[in-house]
Amino acid sequence: MKKQTPVENFVIFVALLLLYIQTSAQHYVRADRFDGASLYADVVHYVKLGIHRTGTEGDNKTSEWIKGILDKNGFKTEYVTFPVKQFFPEKTQLTVGSQTLEVFPVWPVANPNVQLTGTLTDAKNGTESVKDKIA
To answer: Is the pTM of this model over 0.70?
Structure first.
């Protein structure tokens, strides 16, 4: 018999864990929660909570909402807080000529505390130098 790799062991563990959760939680699940209108209402509510990035108001509201649902269905829940070193950008935009676009950086972002200004160029265009430009 071939020995499983760590990845295969992890996949087996997750599959067994999901099977356990699904079978042990069946008595908590109400069938009326699985109709299309109810599920859509949950999605609408989730979206209205706002941005869900870690540490934001929307993230905290989402945690409260999910906790409330679990509590109502008989689960015992508690909040566990922990410090997070995180930067929250106040303003991010890209200006090209006279056009300005609201943008958001890849998350998470470190606090660079710099303003970057330069000419944009296509790095794949071999006819133009990228020196002193944003490519």
So the answer is: no
